[in-house]
């Protein structure tokens, strides 16, 4: 009996996680369609409960307060149209920006990154190295520890960020 209850709780948890992921994907799609020209949605996530955090970048200048206000005005109606009426935070990706799309890995070849994979590879889930190449399905990381090159499929990445030394 106890075991059955545990399964139900696990199923419920997985169901909630799937719903949250689907909601973020819908919101991100709406945001991408509403962003000002020359802008890019780097990441979208719920932070601290109902707070929707959007990390945005732009091609032609810094992500400053004025730009964030412009983005908020542009995307506010889009997320409301998807049924979201909670708080919205617009921010730059920061110095240790997330790498969330294959084009990010291609753009940052030659830069150091930290990568966490969903399932262990050779007994490890965390890697740090220099991005030395990126294709359609995978990227190559030259590990800081030992200098070996490792090809990682994009689908295996749980999280990746640039690693910048200041």
TrEMBL record:
The UniProt keyword set, sorted, is: Cytoplasm, Ribosome biogenesis
**Which residues are in the Ribosome maturation factor RimP C-terminal domain?**
99-162
InterPro entries attached here?
Answer: Ribosome_maturation_RimP, RimP_C, RimP_C_sf, RimP_N_sf
The primary site where this protein sits is cytoplasm
GO cellular component terms, alphabetically, are: cytosol
What subcellular compartments does it reside in? Cytoplasm
Listed Pfam families = DUF150_C (PF17384)
Q: Which GO terms describe its biological process?
A: ribosomal small subunit assembly; translation
Q: Which CDD domains match?
A: YlxS_C
Question: What HAMAP family does the entry give?
Answer: RimP
Concerning its family, UniProt says: Belongs to the RimP family.
Q: What's the stated role of this polypeptide?
A: Required for maturation of 30S ribosomal subunits.
**What protein is this chain from?**
Ribosome maturation factor RimP
């Amino acid at each position: 009996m106890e075991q059955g209850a545990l399964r139900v709780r696990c199923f419920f948890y997985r169901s909630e996680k799937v719903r949250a992921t689907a909601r973020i994907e819908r919101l991100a799609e709406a945001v991408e369609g509403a962003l000002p020209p020359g802008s890019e949605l780097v990441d979208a996530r719920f932070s601290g409960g109902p707070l929707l955090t959007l990390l945005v970048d732009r091609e032609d200048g810094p992500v400053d307060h004025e730009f964030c206000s412009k983005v908020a005005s542009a995307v506010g109606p889009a997320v409301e149209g998807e049924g979201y009426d909670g708080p919205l935070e617009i921010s730059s990706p920061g110095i240790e920006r997330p790498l969330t799309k294959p084009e990010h890995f291609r753009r940052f070849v030659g830069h150091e990154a930290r990568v966490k994979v969903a399932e262990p590879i050779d007994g490890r889930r965390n890697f740090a190295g220099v991005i030395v190449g990126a294709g359609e399905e995978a990227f190559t990381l030259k590990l800081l520890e030992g200098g070996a090159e490792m090809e990682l499929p994009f689908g295996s990445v749980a999280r990746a960020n640039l690693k910048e030394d200041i």
